[in-house]
Design a protein that fits this description.
heterodimer; A: alpha+beta; Arc Repressor Mutant, subunit A; 3 strands; 63% helix; B: alpha+beta; 4 domains; six-stranded mixed beta barrel; six-stranded mixed β-barrel; elongated
Chain lengths: 110, 905
């Protein structure tokens, strides 16, 4: 995997995580599964990139976390979107739309 | 916002580090546990489920590390770690740390101090509003003129009304020393005549009272005067009631109309007047036999007009103006030009070169300091190569290693900079103290010394924001200079080689050795360069002091007096006649004399000289000379030898035959054969330039230096004071006692003869000499101390490198000794190695000096550039010091104890 591709994926990952969390509260595994689900299995997020992203986004103030009990009664860390994160989702969605339109039109052009 | 949030969270993470770590582990663990649970539920055996879950997620620790690397706090934390590590290293090796910090502090301190002066004098704008639009307009005459640089008053009036490039043009003319009487003891004040718009051109308003009115600087204007803040404080006790009061200036009543602001600096630093009077300008601009005076001209350039445009207009004006001169005066201005240049440049032009030379010198010292510390770092980095390799092997990235090394260097540089700043602050404080007006300061010798070249601007030499920024920049620059090479060198360490090279003593690799040698050569070269410069200046200084001054400075007291310009010559003569016997009668006085000029004083030609009998040549083609009126005992009082004929004596009075004594230069220039008995015609002191007096030369005296110790000796003719009285009256007393003790007695004698006559600048002749060479002495002292510092630092550098080298090769030395090498051979081996580097450094230094010493050319007296004596002196001295620096460790090596070394391996 080249470096450029990683960067692209990282930017996309933030967007996908913000989208996947929605207005709910999820732990790491839940978020990973949801990303997989909403991208119809295209993106499988490995913990090696998922957790760094979650922590980074928390530092940036887009996510807030708290400890809670999971479905099978284990302690787990849950994440929820902040208002800052909502705004960020708007920004990133717009950026992504612009980029994907641009790329789509570039690919159509001969 | 986002950066702030990240920083806050980073700090939080740092503070709750343990908790954050635990929570991270719990989080990842619960993730793996959840997957394991799912796998168990789907029927995988528990152990296998756990294994698969771990494999899929990539392991606990790697994930945790990935999260840690992602955190903002990680970067911050590792810098803090580096810093801590650096400080620990320094504590572990305090000798190294102190050497490095002090070396850097000396370099940075010296550089910062000189930069403070450079900033205050060359960079800082003049203390006038919009000062960048102020221009000095000066005349550049091909023929030497006593009005050098200034415009004559009719030209000034013409230029003022015709130039469009300037918003307004102002001028001033120094009036020199004038007596202020009627306010207790009479005092001498310096007076300048200024145009009415002078202050408004500078955008300055009087602090009290009013400015001159535009009608007041005309010819025959009212006798009104502006007082400087300094004089207002010292003589009028800062009393506001002074406005409207009448004072007696030069025997005439003047009305005070205003006081200048406290921090006003006159735009001619040498002048600093106490009182300002309106310029007495005639509106008639025609050139004729009327009285003209020189005007220094300052113009304020209009907005949107460039200097080039102004210069073009000025050229045009000059051309037309000089064409309109009457034919008779045209030869005076043939080929003259009028130039405009920024006032700042005009005022600081003389300081520019010496200051920049000093800056270059301290720069070289700083460079040497950096090289020294770099060498120390390199040596240490080799000693720590094993450690570095180990850290690399344990996973520290190359960048991290470089950064760690740079953080260490930066710590050293910052400590050096803080200490250096303290040094600089102390030096500038001394300069400032020295710069306060004489009466109020209790200045030390050092302060006086420093103050001389900075003059009136010394008050603004300070450590300010710009200087602080400069120092911070230096710290950063030095970090890069001395830190980067060792940092990269260390990070390049080949892990395998270093770790496998099982010998615990690793000598440095060829690359590092080359780098160290190169740095050593560079520092020796720089030191030689500075030493050569210091040598040339020292020789020049000695030559200046050795210059035959033509007078004997030993017990001799000098003082100045200025009679009112309007005084009748008979009255001045009577004053002198009454004064001389009383001075002569003072106990301890061997000979008392008066003269219109003292040795070393700045004088110019003031008489036309026409030798022989022929017709008078026309004005403009006459030769000129300095004429000095002296009393009979003058040559005895000054200690000037009479070479031929006789000195002037009491028989040469007003009614006797006009006579003169000349110096050797005069005899050479104007007379052929024996000077005695020859006749010359002079017109000194005459209002009518055609009124010549025929004088017989009765004696020849040795050449006396005027215009400072370095001035060339010009022809001078001495006339009896009785025959040609002058309003400038200087006193010379040759004493049998310490001359300084006679100062108050002399003052009392003068007051007794004329209660309105102040005596000023009372100094011994030695003090006058010392002042006249003060700037040269300061330059010499500074450059010599920088050179000395450079030499010592370079010596220490050589010592450091070679003691390290020796310590790394103890094993080799021991083996050589064991195999039958003799101890002197060992000594030779090391010294030969050192000699190669020292020679290379010397050659580079001498070559550098050969190119650079032309910068000093204008400061050299009796020494040529590329002075072989100075160059070889510098080379030999540095070589000796460097040999000493390498010889000491070599001796240690030669004493190597074979058994202990070989056993310890």
């Amino acid at each position: 995997m080249g470096r450029n591709q990683t960067n692209l994926v990282q930017g996309t990952l933030d967007l996908l995580i913000l989208k996947a969390i929605g207005d709910g509260e999820f732990h790491g595994l839940g978020i990973g599964r949801r990303v997989e689900q909403i991208t119809r299995g295209t993106f499988k997020v490995r913990p090696g990139s998922l957790f760094p992203a979650l922590h980074r986004m928390e530092e940036a103030g887009w996510l807030a976390s708290f400890w809670g009990d999971s479905e099978n009664h284990r302690r787990a860390r849950y994440y929820r979107r902040t208002r800052e994160g909502e705004r960020q989702l708007g920004v990133e969605t717009e950026q992504w739309t612009t980029i994907s339109r641009a790329i789509a039109s570039a690919l159509k052009a001969n | 916002m986002r950066a702030f949030s990240r920083l806050r969270s980073a700090l939080g993470t740092l503070l709750r580090k343990q908790q954050v770590e635990t929570e991270l582990e719990m989080e990842i663990r619960s993730y793996v546990d959840a997957i394991t649970d799912e796998k168990i539920e789907s029927g995988v055996p528990p152990a296998e489920a756990r294994r698969q879950a771990l494999a899929e997620s990539g392991g606990l620790e790697p994930v945790m590390q990935a999260v840690r690397d992602q955190r903002a706090s990680t970067a911050l934390e590792s810098v803090v770690q580096d810093l801590r590590f650096g400080l620990r290293q320094m504590r572990r090796n305090p000798a190294f740390a102190w050497t490095a910090v002090i070396t850097l502090a000396l370099g940075i301190g010296a550089t910062t101090a000189i930069f403070s002066a450079v900033y205050a004098l060359l960079i800082r704008p003049l203390p006038y509003k919009d000062s960048e639009r102020l221009m000095e307009i000066s005349a550049a005459m091909p023929k030497k003129s006593q009005y050098g640089g200034t415009l004559i008053s009719p030209d000034f009036v013409a230029v003022r009304s015709s130039l469009k490039s300037f918003e307004s043009i102002a001028g001033f003319t120094p009036w020199g020393d004038v007596n202020l009487t009627g306010l207790g003891d009479p005092i001498r004040v310096k007076v300048a005549a200024i145009t009415a718009n002078f202050l408004s051109v500078l955008r300055v308003d009087p602090a009290k009272g009013r400015n001159f009115l535009s009608s007041e600087d005309r010819k025959g204007g009212p006798a009104v005067v502006l007082v400087s803040h300094r004089l207002w404080q010292s003589k009028f006790q800062g009393n506001a009631a002074i406005i409207g009061r009448s004072i007696t200036l030069g025997g005439k009543a003047w009305t005070v109309i205003g006081v200048l602001p406290a921090h006003f600096i006159f735009p001619d630093f040498a002048l600093e007047p106490d009182l300002y009077i309106p310029a007495d300008l005639d509106s008639d601009t025609s050139i004729g036999p009327q009285i003209v005076f020189p005007m220094s001209v300052i113009g304020r350039l209009r907005e949107n007009v460039s200097l080039e445009q102004a210069q073009t207009e000025l050229n045009l004006f000059t051309e037309i103006r000089f064409k309109s001169y009457p034919a008779f005066y045209k030869p005076f201005v043939e080929g003259s030009e009028t130039d405009a240049e920024p006032l700042h440049r005009y005022l600081t032009g003389d300081d520019r070169r010496p200051l920049l030379i000093l800056l270059a010198c301290v720069g070289a010292v700083l460079l040497i300091a950096c090289v020294n510390v770099a060498n120390l770092q390199l040596a240490r980095s080799v000693a720590r190569e094993h450690e570095t390799a180990l850290r690399g092997a344990l996973g520290a990235g190359q960048l991290r290693l470089i950064r760690q090394s740079l953080v260490e260097s930066w710590t050293l540089a910052t400590m050096g900079a803080v200490l250096g700043l303290a040094i600089a602050a102390a030096v500038t404080w001394l300069i400032r103290r020295g710069g306060m007006p004489g009466e109020f300061s209790s200045s030390s010798h050092i302060a006086e010394l420093l103050q001389v070249p900075f003059g009136k601007m010394s008050a603004v030499v300070e450590v300010n924001g710009w200087v602080l920024a400069f120092t911070a920049g230096l710290a950063l620059l030095t970090t890069i200079l001395f830190g980067l090479a060792p940092a990269i060198g260390a990070s390049r360490t080949d892990l395998r080689m270093t770790l496998q090279g099982a010998a615990p003593r690793i000598s440095s690799g060829p690359q590092q050795r080359r780098l160290r040698s190169f740095l050593l050569i560079a520092e020796i070269g720089l030191a030689v360069l500075l030493l050569a410069g210091a040598g040339q200046l020292t020789r020049s200084f000695i030559n200046v002091l050795r210059n035959d001054s033509g007078f004997d400075p030993r017990p001799c007291l000098t003082a100045q007096m200025q009679r009112n310009y309007t005084e009748a010559p008979e009255k001045t003569r009577r004053f002198a006649q009454q004064l001389l016997p009383r001075l002569q009668a003072l106990p301890g006085v061997q000979a008392a004399a008066i003269a219109s000029a003292l040795p070393l004083e700045r004088i110019g030609p003031n008489t036309a000289i026409v030798p022989g009998d022929g017709p008078l040549p026309p004005i403009g083609e006459r030769t000129t000379s300095c004429a000095i009126s002296v009393s009979p005992e003058y040559f005895r009082a000054a200690g000037t030898r009479v070479l031929r004929g006789r000195p002037l004596n009491d028989e040469d009075h007003a009614d006797s035959a006009p006579v003169a004594v000349v110096n050797q230069a005069f005899a050479r220039r104007f007379l052929t054969g024996d000077a005695l008995g020859k006749q010359v015609r002079t017109n000194v002191g005459e209002m009518n330039p055609e009124a010549f007096t025929r004088r017989t030369i009765v004696g020849v005296v040795q050449d006396v230096r005027y215009n400072g110790m370095e001035g060339t000796v010009e022809p001078a003719i001495y006339l009896p004071f009785d025959q040609v009285p002058d309003t400038e009256l200087n006193v010379l007393l040759r004493t049998t006692v310490e001359p300084g003790t006679l100062a108050s007695a002399a003052r009392k004698v003068v007051i007794d003869v004329d209660p309105d006559q102040p005596l000023f600048d009372v100094e011994t002749m030695n003090e006058r000499i010392s002042q006249s060479v003060a700037q040269r002495r300061l330059m010499l002292l500074l450059i010599a101390s920088f050179a000395g510092l450079a030499m010592i630092l370079a010596g220490v550098g050589v010592y450091g490198v070679f003691s390290y080298w020796v310590s790394q090769r103890r094993q080799e030395m021991a083996i050589r000794l064991a195999l039958g090498s003799s101890r002197p051979e060992l000594l030779r081996l090391i010294v030969a190695q050192a000699m190669l580097l020292i020679l290379a450094g010397g050659v580079i230094g001498v070559a550098g000096a050969w190119f650079a010493d032309r910068l000093l050319a204008s400061m050299l007296v009796g020494v040529k550039v590329h002075d072989p004596a100075s160059l070889s002196f510098a080379w030999i001295l540095m070589t000796l010091i460097a040999l000493l620096g390498s010889g000491l460790p070599a001796m240690v090596a030669a004493r190597t104890d074979v058994n202990s070394v070989l056993h310890s391996e």
